[in-house]
Amino acid sequence: MIEICALASGSNGNCYYIGNNQEAVLIDAGLSFKQILKRMETKALNPKKIKALFITHEHGDHVRGARVTGKKLDVPVYMTEGTYKAAFRTWKPISYFPVRDNEAVKIGSLTIYPVSKNHDAAEPTSFRVESNGLNIGVFTDIGSPCDNVKNHLNQCHALFLETNYDCQMLKEGSYPYHLKARIDSTVGHLSNLQAFELLKEHAHPELRCVFLSHLSAENNKPELALGQFKSLEDRFLVKLTDRFAAGEIYTLCNSV
Questions:
Q1: pTM, 2 dp
Q2: In Å, how far are 4, 28, 30, 162, 220 from 34, measured between CA atoms?
């Protein structure tokens, strides 16, 4: 059995909980430690189960709470060397454990696989978490899906997958041209359509649930993101995350 929950997902903060009966990890800490605890409390998630924190990259909405969260929970903080060097100094953990692409990290009965990706950060990585044969992916902040991302995504039974923007809304929106170009670039973010095409072609045959994640408040709408995936709903559940509150806890169990 494994439980997953998006404690926050969006440009104002990202944090994802993945845990089994024995231990859990957090992927990203883009919220204050106080907010992380508060949101866990609303879902009756026990912070004592958390044994490690993994950071995807140095942007504030993913790392700003890393230093305090690692210290208060007294857990190791993992990130790439590039992420550590590029992070704002007051967000950096006092010490960190370096991760490298495709070199697994064991946290009790959990195995965490770093997955290098295309994003405008120093050395960004997504993560796949395995527990007793069940695989959970956290794949956000991806400009274009490389073969590495596709290969790891293809192993997942549940996913947090970026659906950052609707192409038409971004094109017609108020963002300046340079920001629109950055979001739409190969090192920016995944659109609803890109995420749909990625799953249509590379989803695991036993994928059970996808949480649409990191939706832009300005360039997307929940109904547009959900609508994009309508034709895939006979293959797996499609759910939304929330930027202002912890989302639902989704539980996966091994097939009998």
A1: 0.97
A2: 20, 15, 12, 25, 28
